[in-house]
Amino acid sequence: MLPAAHRLTRPEDFREVFRRGVSAGGSRVVLHWLRGDDSTRDLDPGAPVRIGFVASKKVGNAVMRHRVKRQLRHVMRERLEEFPPGARVVVRCLPAAAGSTSGDFACELDRLINKARERSGSR
């Protein structure tokens, strides 16, 4: 589970990440990333990385959507250090995520994080 300080929950934050961030898509998920220094809000340099998840009904029933988001939370918790302080990330699930394992998500997210990092000019 992600610690509360690392959860992205407000709809305004999701909208800002979708509108202003960079995205990288895969077969199971799409990663949207807004660096902390790209934000319209003043964030302190030590602000935590905040991550949110979106799974529509196209992914499956409620049980499947929650299962997928649980797997993704676990995988993303291990990758918090990959993002600069203050970054906001949204992981949007695609229908193919329904039959995926945590290992599948880990491989895809590693690739998408690198792709998004290149696009954002970070590091």
UniProtKB/TrEMBL annotation:
Keyword Lipid biosynthesis applies: no
Domain of life the protein comes from: Bacteria
GO cellular component terms, A-Z: ribonuclease P complex
Keyword entries, A-Z: Endonuclease, Hydrolase, Nuclease, RNA-binding, tRNA processing
InterPro entries: Ribosomal_Su5_D2-typ_SF, Ribsml_uS5_D2-typ_fold_subgr, RNase_P, RNase_P_CS
Gene3D superfamilies in alphabetical order: 3.30.230.10
Name of a matching Pfam family: Ribonuclease_P
Catalytic activity: Endonucleolytic cleavage of RNA, removing 5'-extranucleotides from tRNA precursor
Enzyme Commission numbers on file: 3.1.26.5
Uppermost EC category: hydrolase
UniProt GO BP: tRNA 5'-leader removal
GO molecular function, one term: ribonuclease P activity
UniProt cross-references to PANTHER family, sorted A to Z: RIBONUCLEASE P PROTEIN COMPONENT
Assembly behavior: Consists of a catalytic RNA component (M1 or rnpB) and a protein subunit.
Family: Belongs to the RnpA family.
Function: RNaseP catalyzes the removal of the 5'-leader sequence from pre-tRNA to produce the mature 5'-terminus. It can also cleave other RNA substrates such as 4.5S RNA. The protein component plays an auxiliary but essential role in vivo by binding to the 5'-leader sequence and broadening the substrate specificity of the ribozyme.
Protein name in the entry: Ribonuclease P protein component
Protein source organism: Bowdeniella nasicola
